[in-house]
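Researcher: Here's a chain I'd like modeled. Treat it as a single chain, no partners, no ligands.
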Amino acid sequence: MRLCISIASILFVTTPAAAATITVRPETPDRPIVVVVEGSLAAFDEDQFAAKTAPLSTAFVAFSSDGGSLVAGLRIGEAIRRKRFSTIVPDGRRCASACALASLGGVERFIGTSGKISFHAAYDAASDESGVGTAVVDAYLSKIGLPYEAVIHITTASNEMTWLNMSDAAQRGIRVTLLSSLAKETMAAIPTRYGDVTVTRDDPECCVGHIRFRDQLVELASTGQIYASLEGVYKVKEGDLVVISSPSGARGSPPRYYALLVGQDRMVDLTGSDFGTSDGTFKAVQRDNEVYFDLGFQKRQKKRAIYKNGTVHSGYSFIGARKGRFTKMEPSQCIFVHRSHRALCQRTNARRSSIWL
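Model: Modeled as a single isolated chain. Structure tokens:
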């Protein structure tokens, strides 16, 4: 996917439609192929979508719809995943209900800063039962590879519209990248309690960008394309902890991660040299004023990190190790150890010092 082309230009390709339409916008010098889906989804719209996208090998699918047919939304989402298309909800547009489910089919998902995505309880009109609809949605979400946390979050939505919160989405493994139309070189604008953190690219082709907060900068560098994904914004007593990922440049390599503490007057880069994942696993959960990160496995050890009291520490624990073989950890970090070994971790901490890197 040619993300080096001004992806923000996709934010402007949709126009209001009175009825459901599916239109293919051809590639231009500053924009890749865009398939525009507008209006309420109806039965057999998936056939129209399949026919119009059959000759395409790559595309962005831009949504502007308040929903409609659940079956049409799920089948369009499955087609998007089979074709390995990316999806986007442009600035000022809404994608709700069946549309939101279809958008999850994208291998990469984007949303404009004023775009909105929402879910609510699934309803199957043919059986007049919401339970049937929920089961179908559950199967679809599992099929496209969403983690259990995301499946539970979506399938337990109430009958009221629930607008997607970016931090909640990131914590549950729903990867969505924020885009901004503020300027051509601005790729993301992330709101915090103290103002926007923006991600900009110095050159539309590659290979240097910056995370900006007021007059402070953190450099992004890559051997390839520069773009960024929001992993989460966590409100802690010291400020807002913003976690962003950006490609490392090497094909197939995990992205680089950045942990930034934003306060009233400044942004502090808390990213340590070991804050990252080698196997692609990255999950986070907040408990009170602490944020716990699951960073997968590295060299047969479970890798974790924690934000606490204005700092981020990374460390390891042995999984399934013999008694007494735990990596040295802070007492509070026994939460990282499997529950079957947690008591042992707590006992051995008394005689082991911390090895946080």
